[in-house]
Specification:
Layout lengths: L11 H7 L14 H10 L2 H5 L18 H19 L3 H10 L8 H13 L7 H12 L13 H9 L23 H25 L4 H7 L1 H13 L5 H31 L4 H6 L9 H19 L2 H23 L6 H4 L2 H4 L1 H10 L3 H16 L7
């Protein structure tokens, strides 16, 4: 299925304008600017560390569960499919999908909540989109001539705007990213590609973990039930686990096709034919149909009520939040214990932000090792004298 919105995408003169980099880049080598961005992201240390960060289940639970990295790859597959179907710039969409979670700390959303709470005690906050921008602009040091990955303006705009809008009055440092305008369609589809991918993946991992039952999930998520029944009719003798897996792919395809159709319909209804006109619209146009959005929301609520907040994961979340909080407090109280590269940042950024930056870059295993080391040092500390 292909619905050509090429004129509204990042091509031609718009691509040249949005392909600007902060520092001069070597001459082209046959790759598009966004393919080069993709390769820089994939070769970054922050991207590799996603392999050791929790999606829903920690890597210690099973090798078969998604990590933040494998989830990211699945989102990239979905995003590229949607972009191609709409006639958009698939290279840019793929790059934005690959970089969209690069700012997440260890332990998934539990780690992010804990880090945000810690920073709010110091009048600050943690936002994984804004942290991702800090990573690609500052923390990645891979080139001789500059800090950061030197990504294009389009990719940097998409990093911060793919899932939400920011007020320029509250974030004047982001003024160059057209905060008073809608992002390109290539960025608008990323959040929905993410939602579709993790709905499918988390149902799959939930059943694989034994925390969800196939019959229960099928009975409570309508779009999954329709998909399951369709696969069962085609394969009446197949085992439930194979029917379920096939149904998940059918459900994902249904949501992707709905997003493609509805987005194309919204663009046509808006009469926008250029990226400038897409930017000027009062709201984003990449959306699911009302029915599909309702059913996607039903699936998300089901996962929240039965999986994300189940006792086993709640215990893991509590442990994760304790680890993040204790280490944050330790390094704010004793910043000299931070690595040298981070202590150098304290004068400019302050100890709370630097401690958060250090924690946010960690994998699950590394932060747990840091926690054990800190506790061991505390246990061996000389008792205070009377």
């Amino acid at each position: 299925m292909s619905l050509n919105l090429h004129g509204c995408g990042v091509f031609g003169a718009e691509e040249q304008r949005l392909a600007r980099r902060v520092f001069p880049a070597p001459a082209g080598d046959g790759r598009s600017p966004f393919e080069r961005d993709r390769d820089r992201v994939v070769q970054s240390r922050a991207f590799r560390r996603l392999a050791g960060k929790t999606q829903v289940f920690t890597s210690r639970a099973s090798d078969h569960f998604r990590s933040r990295l494998t989830h990211t790859i699945e989102v990239a597959q979905v995003a590229r499919q949607i972009a191609a179907a709409l006639g958009l710039n698939a290279d840019l969409a793929e790059t934005l999908a690959l970089v969209h979670d690069i700012g997440h700390p260890p332990f998934g959303h539990a780690g992010e909540r804990a880090l945000d709470r810690c920073l709010r005690r110091h009048g600050l906050s943690f936002d994984h989109n804004l942290h991702a921008l800090r990573i690609v602009e500052h923390f990645e040091q891979r080139y001789a001539g500059h800090r950061g990955l030197n990504l294009t303006l389009a990719t940097r705009e998409g990093i911060i705007k793919h899932s939400r809008d920011y007020d320029v009055a509250q974030h004047p440092e982001l003024a160059e990213y057209f905060l008073d305008q809608r992002p390109p369609l290539e960025a608008q589809i990323i959040d929905l590609a993410d939602e579709i991918a993790y709905l499918t993946a988390d149902l799959d991992d939930g059943v694989e973990s034994g925390l969800l039952e196939i019959d229960h999930a099928v009975g409570h998520v309508r779009i999954l039930r329709r998909s399951f029944e369709a696969v069962r009719r085609a394969h009446p003798a197949a085992e439930d686990k194979y029917v379920f897996h096939d149904a998940l792919q059918t459900m994902q395809k249904t949501l992707v096709l709905d997003l493609v159709r509805q987005t194309a319909e919204n663009v046509r209804a808006s009469a926008a034919t250029t990226l400038a006109e897409i930017r000027a619209l009062p709201m984003r146009v990449a959306r699911l149909s009302p029915q599909a959005e309702e059913e996607r929301g039903e699936g998300k609520r089901y996962l929240f009520e039965t999986l994300y907040t189940c006792p086993l994961l709640e215990r893991e979340h509590a442990k994760a939040e304790a680890v993040v909080t204790e280490l944050f407090d330790l390094w704010v109280r004793e910043p000299e214990q931070l690595p040298g590269a981070y202590t150098e940042e304290i004068e400019a950024e302050g100890a709370p932000r630097v401690a958060a930056d250090y924690i946010a870059g960690m994998t699950d295993n590394f932060i747990l090792q840091q926690y054990e080391d800190a506790r061991e040092c505390s246990d061996h500390a000389e008792p205070a004298r009377e």
